[in-house]
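testing teh design pipeline on a random one, pls ignore if ur not involved
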């Protein structure tokens, strides 16, 4: 099939978008870091079976561990944030990592951001004001946590670019996922001290997010990026917030209103501008 990789990436974006509703429901029934420990534990086990840790070098373990801390922070902020905001808001605000990555990169390298990054930031900021500040210039707790998630994901991508060169993609991803599982388990043991979940819906969410949204999605994205251009990959995956909005509307009953819909539209426009108009060195295509 000619467009099999594009269709596979659309399926990945749809799975990622659907998980916002699923995770929000799961963390109403079990503590967020216990959920993350089990989700990423399942994903790490699946990648281990696939050989992700075979031949692991010490430098890959160190690099993957450092990158994994940023990944843990991103999912930690996002999962806790979903306890206080809607899946739709979480999906669109998480997508801001595409805009933040080139901005953070420019700040670290001490040069002005590209025109695409600047335009994307301007559009996305306007969208964030409309979406997350419906009654003045105060960001709700959940939206603020998810914004911290987007910043963590941006740092995660920059760390991959800095530390990933010359290292096995699959082994580096396996260490990141295992690091997130271990860090989540330690946080849960220290702060939550909750028993293992017995709810079938929680275990369904753990299996879906661990196997499909993490392990399988990584394999599909890695394979796709070897066959289709990076810009096309990024644009397809930028549909994740739109899918989050659709599932939020159909399943969770989210209703944005005219102001929220305009804000979501501006965020999507900012994401596409930051990706499509960015120089090739700034394009965001690496996620786990």
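output:
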């Amino acid at each position: 099939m000619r467009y099999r990789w594009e269709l596979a990436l659309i399926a990945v974006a749809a799975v990622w978008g659907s998980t916002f509703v699923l995770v929000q429901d799961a963390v109403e029934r079990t503590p967020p870091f216990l959920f993350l420990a089990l989700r990423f534990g399942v994903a790490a086990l699946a990648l281990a079976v696939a050989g992700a840790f075979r031949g692991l070098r010490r430098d890959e373990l160190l690099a993957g561990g450092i990158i994994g801390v940023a990944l843990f922070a991103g999912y930690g902020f996002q999962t806790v944030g979903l306890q206080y905001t809607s899946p739709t808001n979480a999906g669109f605000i998480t997508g801001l990592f595409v805009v933040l990555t080139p901005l953070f990169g420019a700040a670290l390298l001490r040069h002005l951001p590209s025109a695409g990054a600047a335009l994307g930031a301007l559009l996305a900021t306007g969208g964030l004001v409309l979406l997350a500040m419906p009654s003045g210039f105060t960001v709700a707790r959940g939206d603020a946590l998810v914004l911290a998630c987007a910043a963590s994901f941006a740092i995660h991508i920059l760390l991959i670019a800095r530390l990933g060169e010359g290292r096995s993609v699959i082994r580096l991803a396996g260490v990141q996922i295992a690091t997130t599982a271990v860090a989540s388990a330690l946080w849960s043991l220290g702060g939550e001290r909750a028993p293992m979940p017995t709810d079938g819906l929680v275990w369904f969410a753990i299996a879906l997010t661990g196997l499909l949204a993490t392990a399988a999605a990584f394999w599909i994205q890695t394979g796709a990026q070897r066959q289709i251009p990076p810009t096309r990959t990024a644009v397809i995956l930028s549909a994740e917030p739109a899918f989050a909005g659709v599932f939020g509307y159909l399943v969770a009953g989210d209703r944005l209103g005219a102001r929220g819909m305009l804000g979501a539209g501006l965020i999507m426009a900012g994401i596409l501008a930051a990706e499509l108009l960015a120089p090739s060195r700034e394009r965001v295509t690496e996620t786990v």
